[in-house]
What does this fold into?
Amino acid sequence: MDPDVKYIPKMQLLTLDEYIRIVKIAISLGIEKLRITGGEPTLYPQLDDLLEQVGKLGLKDIALTTNGSRVRSQWAQRWKLLGLNRATVSLDTLNPQRKDAITRSQTSLNTVINSIESLRDAGLKPVKVNAVVIRGVNDDEVIDFADFAKNHEIDMRLIEFMPLDAGKRWEKRHVVSAKEMLTNITTKHELIREDDVKTSTSMNYRFNEGKGRIGFIASVTEAFCGACDRMRMMADGTIRPCLFSDEEWGIRPLLRNGASDDELRQFFRDAMWQKSAGHGMDRDDFERPEKTMSRIGG
It folds into this structure.
């Protein structure tokens, strides 16, 4: 948990019915995929109800991102039955001595690995495991991450360090590029590049021998802004078209003041048109977003 985390008053949080209405509006505009993030979504008391309702709406893909601290085998199986298709787990180190310092969590490494296996065995595939790679912190583990992907038959995604950390430590010199990570991994593993869809956020590779995949998310050095078609909504109804911008708009007042479905659709259209052509991290005047990833959701 971020050291300076501030909880949002309950009255400012969207209700389950408001979530469902927004998802239906998004579907009517052509949205086909939904990802439930946090914070930690497994703490949401109505998660099962949310999954059950969105699972009936005809979405092509429903995914969930978790830190793996509260996943149980029976829960994973139930989520699959309710309509969840895939799961992503955040895991920034495979070193037990580093984990507490990096994640500020008391959850053991074995607990997170058991969660990954429970999600995989429940059929929530491909299970994706995300690791943010930071120079001088965990960049010596990239080959270990590749081994982990192969041994556990999951998708390991290595993410360039982005300016969204709670400690506000981000500097370009701490960024390990996707190219550098790939070079390191190929000293041990032979990888084959896959044909990614245009809107993919990762550059994906499979092992020449064995199962599992490696994906590189090069948000800093090889930005994919031009192909980004994502929209994020926070728990309080704040809509954010770009992770790296402080531009955002609140849909909650519209929901609670009688806005029609057509008015909500226009709100989404207007917000989407505000997506930037690029995040600008390569510019000298780049200013990091005020909100951290745990607040925005990822």
Observations:
- The chain has a mean pLDDT of 89.
- The radius of gyration is 19 Å.
- The first helix runs from residue 16 to 28.
- DSSP finds ten helices and eleven strands in the chain.
